[in-house]
Specification:
Largest sheet: 4 strands, antiparallel
Number of helices: 3
Distance between the termini: 8 Å
Radius of gyration: 22 Å
Helix content: under 10%
Number of strands: 28
């Protein structure tokens, strides 16, 4: 694409484009601070809101250093503390927030320490009304939860009881739909649940009641299945070899099409660490951490955050740490924001957020709103669009 500019406008356009592009390529932003760990990032669908938990005294609201749930508002840059459990870190706290796609509701685990044991219960918080609801009684040795995109359904896994669905409107639980699980994720409409057990990776359909075995154990290691919001793709890490491409049994990244029930092996590494973080709403962008040198930018073998674009078929390395590691990555449903946890110089783990550039499947120059406004102000937008169409 070529087009002509009046000489007097060339520098102004170049400066404007540089400013716009600089925003897209901005360095990751550190959201949490303090000398204690911050963990468990969870993003809203558009990446505008980020939930996490931390033992640091962020904003001066957590002086007793309990693990508490915080929410970061990207537009304002403000962070607010959602929970507040007294007594200090030895008494208990709150952890593992799961944020609904619309950013309106949280599900998380509250725990209290009794002797040498932590007892858990699941709670929900409405960010619009600032209302806290307790879902389960205190007493579970292990609990976890995930929330649907609209915040109306919460899947809760409790010890050996198993997974039940909590309906926010009726404030009631369903019957058990899956055994006790190691990890799980839910589609945006809450109608599909992917989970990991001793028996491998499985997919439960709420409407039909059918459970599908996706990756049988068979001696293989399977980890953290992540379901896209539309339920079309299930991504997970495994050592199994469904396509004959993983004969050495490395931990590799796999994508499973839930409609065609077909696999695709996305990575082909030779050892090292591989951990899945999250997938975009349509399952086409996948955030994960790896110590592999996937695109020639990780020769030192640090554990870094990567994003794989299923449609483009390429990798992007998001982090480039000289010392430390970057893990627990998650990605917004629109595929444009990544949040993760990093420890630099082996210090406390902190939460970061990074912007990704929009996908350009035809290779054309992106035209975000900010760029369009710059061009329009200069009277050049029509010329650019005409040039694109030629």
């Amino acid at each position: 694409m070529t087009f002509s500019l009046q000489p007097g406008r060339t520098c102004l356009v170049a400066a404007s484009l540089a400013a716009v592009c600089g925003v897209a390529r901005a360095a990751p932003l550190q959201v949490s601070s303090g000398g204690l760990n911050s963990l468990g990032p969870s993003l809203s669908a558009d990446g505008s809101r980020l939930a996490f938990y931390s033992a640091s005294n962020i904003g001066g609201t957590n002086p007793d250093n309990n693990f508490e749930v915080f929410v970061y508002e990207r537009a304002s840059g403000q962070t607010r503390q959602i929970t507040d459990m007294p007594g200090g870190i030895q008494a208990g706290g709150n952890q593992e927030p799961s944020l609904s796609g619309d950013g309106s509701r949280l599900a998380f685990q509250r725990f209290q320490v009794s002797g040498n044991t932590a007892l858990f219960q699941t709670q929900s918080y409405d960010l619009n009304t600032n209302t806290l609801t307790t879902l389960t009684p205190l007493g579970g040795v292990f609990e976890q939860s995930v929330i649907s995109r609209d915040g109306k359904r919460i899947a809760v896994s409790t010890d050996n009881l198993g997974v039940r669905f909590y309906d926010v409107a009726s404030q009631s639980f369903s019957a058990v739909v899956a055994p006790s699980v190691f990890s799980m994720s839910m589609s945006g409409d809450g109608k599909r649940l992917a989970y990991e057990t001793m028996g491998g990776v499985k997919l439960f359909d709420v409407d039909t009641g059918i459970t599908t075995a996706v990756a049988p154990l068979n001696g293989a290691f399977n980890q953290r299945p992540m379901l896209s919001a539309d339920g079309s793709r299930l991504t997970f890490v495994s050592t199994f070899n469904p396509l004959g491409q993983n004969a050495d049994g490395n931990r590799e990244l796999f994508s499973f099409d839930t409609l065609t029930q077909s696999f695709e092996q996305l990575t082909h590494t030779a050892g090292g660490q591989m951990d899945l973080g999250g997938v975009s709403g349509d399952g086409s962008r996948i955030a994960f951490s790896s110590s592999a040198d996937l695109i020639g930018e990780n020769a030192d073998g640090n554990v870094e955050v990567f994003v794989y674009d299923l449609l483009a078929g390429d990798f992007q390395q998001v982090t480039h740490a000289l010392n430390g590691f970057s893990v627990d990555a998650t990605i917004s449903a629109d595929g444009l924001t990544v949040a993760y946890v990093a420890s630099h110089e082996r210090g406390a783990m902190q939460v970061f957020i990074a912007a990704l550039e929009p996908r350009q499947p035809d290779g054309r120059l992106p035209e975000p709103a900010s760029l369009a406004l710059v061009m329009a102000a200069l009277g050049l937008l029509p010329a650019v669009r005409r040039a694109r169409s030629n």
